[in-house]
Specification:
With 385 residues, the chain is α/β, with parallel strands linked by helices. 47% of the residues lie in helices and 15% in strands. The protein folds into two domains: 241 residues, 3-Layer(aba) Sandwich (Rossmann fold); 122 residues, Homeodomain-like (Arc Repressor Mutant, subunit A), CATH 1.10.10.60. The chain has an eight-stranded mixed β-sheet with strand order 7-9-6-1-10-11-15-14, sandwiched between helices. It has a three-stranded antiparallel β-sheet with strand order 3-4-5. A two-stranded parallel sheet has the order 2-8.
Length: 385
């Protein structure tokens, strides 16, 4: 049986769900693989076939001697949650957990090292002992990962220098400022960076809480294949691979970021007039500023250009319409200010990596589905009569 030791190295004020999501995913994968292997062995015994171990390229399979078919071998994901001092650790938002001491793992093999997140701000102090332990022990692991703001610990340990990395979209600018040698990309749900040179090692970083599950499923797929990861995802009732990036969950962003600020009223007006002219000149006129002054002030207050806010608001409105209604794409494109279906498709492909109808299929609400079903039945009745 293949045993993979997954170590969660946690800091005080651990965001509990950053660790719980991946832990659950690994457990579900282990149950899935064990079930598949047991069924395969039972079938082979029943049919009188011999069963021989066969460690294939993935390192995890059992082959039927006569048929040549292979199924995943039972894999034990041994998980350890450890902290510098061990013992009971208070978590955010308050549920305590029992941890082992990290130094008790010094002589144990580590397959995957995962650093979950903690609440961070501009003045947060990372635990020096944990940073030092990560720096010493990361080279021993086959792969190193972070969930959410756990990336700050990897960066402090020097593991992200020169690499692409992500974290929660809200904390990405802070990560970039604090660790300028890290190439921070705020949009992906997770990033796998294999480094530039042979022997650099693989480092995975991911966004917020639910992205930890996405990350774990990707690790499971790497270990035991797509089919098992898909089954684990089904057990968790989550997507195997979500479309798009973090931006789809953080849009309208400009309006929210500037809530109660000098452009709050402007953002409300923009959201209500998405199909109108929202050029810098028109927006400047609304705020009674010159275009140049408006553009400069806006970037200072909101942190992005007016054009990017317009694009985000329009995309958020279109996403909401797709998820909550069955309105035709042409009407959505017009009402949200894209002008044409083609422009809407381009915007979705550029930002989310999927077409609008694919987005609707994955994110449509149950209410919209029921409404659509009722409309279809009504149409059929009308046609029959």
């Amino acid at each position: 049986m293949a045993v993979r030791h997954i170590v969660f190295a946690v800091a005080p004020d651990l965001v509990l769900l950053d660790a719980c999501g991946p832990l659950e995913a690994f457990w579900r994968a282990e149950l899935t693989v064990a079930g598949i292997a047991a069924a395969s062995v039972a079938k082979a015994v029943e049919s009188g076939e011999g069963v021989a171990s066969d460690e294939g390229r993935s390192g995890i399979s059992i082959s039927s001697a006569s048929s040549g078919r292979s199924t995943p071998q039972p894999v034990a994901y041994r998980t350890t949650v450890a902290s510098i001092d061990g013992g009971i650790l208070q978590t955010f938002p308050g549920l305590p957990i029992v941890t082992e001491r990290l130094d008790s793992l010094d002589d144990q093999p580590i397959d995957t090292l995962i650093i979950p997140g903690v609440p961070v701000d501009e003045h947060c102090t990372l635990q020096p002992g944990l940073v030092a332990w990560i720096r010493r022990h990361a080279p021993r692991a086959r792969r190193v990962c972070s969930v959410c703001t756990g990336a700050f610990y990897l960066a402090a340990a020097g593991l992200l220098d020169g690499r692409r990395a992500t974290t929660h979209w809200r904390d990405a600018p802070r990560l970039a400022r604090r660790f300028p040698n890290v190439h921070v990309d705020a949009d992906p749900i997770f990033i796998r960076d294999a480094g530039r040179h042979e022997g650099d090692g693989v480092v995975w970083t991911s966004a917020g809480v639910t992205a930890g599950i996405d990350l774990a499923l990707a690790l499971i797929e790497e270990d035991v294949g797509h089919a098992v990861a898909m089954q684990a995802a089904r057990r968790l009732v989550v997507f195997m691979k979500r479309p798009g990036g973090q931006s789809q969950y953080s849009a309208a962003l400009a309006a929210q970021a500037s809530a109660n600020g000098p452009f709050e009223a402007l953002h409300s007006w923009m959201a209500a007039h998405l199909r109108d002219d929202l050029s810098v000149e028109r927006l400047a006129e609304r705020t009674r500023m010159s275009p140049r002054t408006f553009a400069r002030r806006y970037v200072e207050e909101v942190g992005r250009t007016p054009a990017k806010t317009v694009a985000a608001l329009r995309l958020e409105a279109a996403s909401r319409e797709l998820a909550e209604s069955r309105r035709p794409l042409k009407r959505i494109a017009l009402d949200c200010g894209f002008g044409s279906e083609q422009n809407l498709r381009r915007a979705f492909l550029r930002r989310f990596g999927v077409l609008p109808l694919d987005y609707r299929e994955r994110f449509m609400s149950a209410v919209a589905r029921r409404s659509g079903a009722v409309s279809e039945v009504a149409a059929e009745i009308a046609e029959a009569s």
